[in-house]
Amino acid sequence: MRSWPKVALPPIASTFAFPSLSVMNSSTRALVTLPEKKTYRMYVCGITPYDATHLGHAATYITFDLVHRYLLAAGKEVLFVENVTDIDDPLLERAKRDHLDWEDLAYSQIELFRGDMTDLHVLPPKDLIGAVESIPLVVQAIETMKSTGAVYPIDNDLYFSVRSDPDFGSRAHLSDEEMARISGQRGGDPDRAGKRDPLDALVWLAKRPDEPGWSSSLGEGRPGWHIECCAIAMNYLQPDPDEDFLVDIQGGGSDLLFPHHEMGAAQARILASKPYARAYMHSGMIGWRGEKMSKSLGNLVFLSKLVDQGHDPMAIRTALMYRNYADDHMWRVEDLEDATTLINNLRLLLSRPEVAPTHEIIQLMINAMANNLDTPSIFRALKDWCNVTESGAEGGSAGELSRALDLLLGIAL
Ligand code: ZN
Asked: What distance in angstroms lies between residue 323's CA and the mean position of ligand 1's atoms?
């Protein structure tokens, strides 16, 4: 499907050194340094198009935008693919609740999401792929898994047998009991009769009355969620047969660690006989007034509402980068006010003919980004730089710092 508009990236002087990027890998619970190479592959799990785009979504897509920007700034090529789950139970349930046509709901929310990503200055993916348009790929993937015995039927539905991957559960570091509990909370059906293992995941749901279905060699139905991402990633990221992993980064919010990313990894292992991601990278949850921001709690803060209220999207983006991406974080109005002050201050100072030296702070920004996207230290340094400039220091290049803020942090002033 159509992505959102391209974003121009400003240049940076070749005198800056770009260390290899290290990120937190959830599957090893340690930092992994990406090897130096020409091309990186990143798959980020996108929205289910209802309730878009709350600040939890915004924080996640900013996180992976920072990875994207760093690698591009370092002169690398990034193959970046993101999906939109434009058919799934939660979408149908919301459409039914609100008496809307599910396709109209999905269309309007995807449009809103594109606008929100544009406001936040997020670089678009190479491919933004919907679940519906990827059904032929999903069917093909299920057929391949079926031929290996990793898929079995219950009634007319099809399930992925998680034990066909001997490493199942190893990426999430959870016990079987924990996995069963979480699976039940996150769209799984551990209690369904006929399953070989309670954790087995639905890959094809036979058409139900009053629900949409698509004809295929598997019968009329629709895809399960986990196999959708796996099939899209493997087809659109063009894994390199010479690499040890299919993709470099599998990204998403930390609520996708299990079951979604564990399932994707296990299914990809069956499909390609090699490990899926070099790093499973997760953005922390954003809370509001003491609770995790979630659809079920109804405490969502929407980006578009904040923008409608007159808040600067660059200040919202900045406030979300005050924390380290991996940390869970409570959204605070005070942080948005502080970020608004900082952005306004930077705009004023960077329009001065003389500013404090900039080369050192730009190299600091690069080094901090390479160190697991350490944005908090960058903002501390930027505030210090503002103070030094206000005190009359000279010798820097305002243009050079403006361009680096845009290139590395996505802050367009
Ligand atoms: Zn996904």
From this structure: 24
With b for 16 or more beta-carbon neighbours within 10 A and e for fewer, the 225-244 pattern comes to bbbbbbbbbbbbbebeeeee
Give residue 199 CA to ligand 1 midpoint distance, Å: 17
Gap from CA of 316 to ligand 1 centroid (Å): 25
Q: What is the whole-number distance in angstroms between the Cα of residue 15 and the centre of ligand 1?
A: 38
pLDDT at 389 over 90: yes
63 and 42 Cβ atoms separated by less than 8 Å: no
Assign 290 a pLDDT band (cuts: 50, 70, 90): confident
Tokens of residue 47, six digits: 């929205």
Neighbours of ion ligand 1 (CB under 5 A): 45, 229
> What was the pLDDT predicted at 98?
95
Compute, in angstroms, the gap from residue 193 CA to the centroid of ligand 1.
Answer: 26
Tokens of 237: 């990221």
pLDDT for residue 298: 78
Token reading at 140: 């093909």
pLDDT of residue 383: 98
- Residue 22: its pLDDT value, please? 98
Ligand 1: centre distance to CA 263 (Å): 10
Q: Which residue has the tokens 């999905």?
A: 106
Could you give the CA distance from residue 43 to residue 260 in angstroms, rounded to a whole number? 13
The secondary structure of 73-99 as a DSSP string is HTT-EEEEEEEE--SSHHHHHHHHHTT
For 110-119, how does the pLDDT look when each residue is reduced to its tens digit (9 = 90+)? 999 999 999 9
218 CA to middle of ligand 1, Å? 22
> CA 96: distance to chain centroid?
27
pLDDT greater than 90 at residue 295: no
- Written as six digits, the tokens of 367 are 């080094």
Provide the whole-model pTM: 0.97
45: CA distance to ligand 1 center in Å?
A: 4
pLDDT 10s digits, 143-189: 999 999 999 999 999 999 999 999 999 999 999 899 999 998 888 99
Determine the Cα–Cα distance for residues 57 and 46; give it in Å rounded to an integer: 9
Per-residue confidence (pLDDT) for residue 299, from 0 to 100: 85
Q: How many C-beta atoms lie closer than 10 Å to residue 205's C-beta?
A: 18
Domains and CATH numbers, the chain: 32-283 (3.40.50.620), 288-409 (1.10.730.10)
The sign of the torsion formed by the CA atoms of 228, 57, 76, 372 equals negative
